[in-house]
Amino acid sequence: MKIISNIAEFKEHIAQVKQNGLTIGFVPTMGALHAGHQSLVEKARIENEYCVVSIFVNPTQFNNITDLAKYPRTLEADTQLLEETGCDLIFAPESKDIYSDNEISQTFDFDFKGLDKVMEGQFRPGHFNGVVQIVSKLFSLVQPDKSYFGEKDFQQLAIIHLMVKELNLNIEIIDCPIVREASGLAMSSRNERLSPEQRIIAANISKVLFESRNFVPEKLPKETIDWVKAEIKLIDGLEVEYFEIANSINLKTAKSWSEPTVGCIAVFCGEVRLIDNIRYKQISVE
Ligand code: PAF
Question: What kind of fold does domain 2-176 have according to CATH?
Fold first, then answer.
């Protein structure tokens, strides 16, 4: 497994891989890798001849400077995990090599068609702009055939699909299911920041989400939203930032279960902000 941080060296290496006619599977990450990332890398390795993983804590997608400072950086452990998983190349650039001073302070020009205005976008202004900025840059450097993203970041995935379509990129985006701890807690790099007690408390998020599936079809999405929020409010140590049941394609608030729906939640467990989501059964109407 090779590790490259220098952009010129990386470009040269990718050119060589392309010249050898190998298909490239790409997993972009911000490091602090866990079993969720590992599942993406395994899939990328199986489905492609060459597997690239980027590790870059992208400053432009953090709307909170403390969150950026506290984001776990564990390059040594990440390298070991990727070695074991079977990746061919790690790309771990520095911020100064990726962004010019102008780019880091300016908004990236992209029409999100409203997908950035709800849920995460509403509570983390500018976040998706930073995501699209870095992912489009990484795509042009890596030139992958396929790129792998976890469904835990449901809205991010919807935006990446839009980006690939709008920029006419010849890259297949592969949606990969959420990987959960035995307790049901969705795997996240942020879980590292939870105390053992908080980990137990945080497992209630998925528990409530799973239970809310029983509301379909008797209760309306709106009633389900109110129930989920109320249930989580009862748990000491958790504070809901938002819970929305949205149409899983356009992310607009779902009015009924006849639409394809996803329930997306953001919850603070102490200072740690966690997200999760769940798909609801679609009910066909005559
Ligand atoms: O999902 C993430 O880890 C990040 O948003 C991504 C896609 C690597 C871009 O920085």
Answer: Rossmann fold (3.40.50)
Which residue is closest in CA terms to ligand 1's atom 9? Answer: 131
CATH class of 189-280: alpha beta
Instruction: Give the Cα separation of 85 and 36 in Å (integer).
Output: 12
Helices (H) and strands (E) in the chain, counts: 11, 9
> For residue 240, what pLDDT is reported?
98
Q: Quote the longest CA-to-CA distance of the chain.
A: 59
Give the tens place of pLDDT for each residue, 199-229: 999 999 999 999 999 999 999 999 999 999 9
Find out whether the beta carbon of 30 lies less than 6 Å from any atom of ligand 1: yes
Beta-sheet pairing, 261-269 with 272-280: antiparallel
Task: Give me the residue spans of the domains in the chain.
Answer: 2-176, 189-280
The C-alpha atoms of residue 65 and residue 251 are separated, in whole angstroms, by: 27
Question: pLDDT tens digit string along 11-69?
Answer: 999 999 999 999 999 999 999 999 999 999 999 999 999 999 999 999 999 988 999 99
153 in contact with ligand 1, CB cutoff 6 A: yes
CA of 92 to the centre of ligand 1 (A): 13
Which atom of ligand 1 is nearest to 58's Cα?
10
Name the residue of 40, 58, 73, 129 whose CB sits within 8 Å of the most ligand 1 atoms, as the mutation to test its pocket. 58
Q: Measured in angstroms, how far is the CA atom of residue 56 from the centroid of ligand 1? A: 8
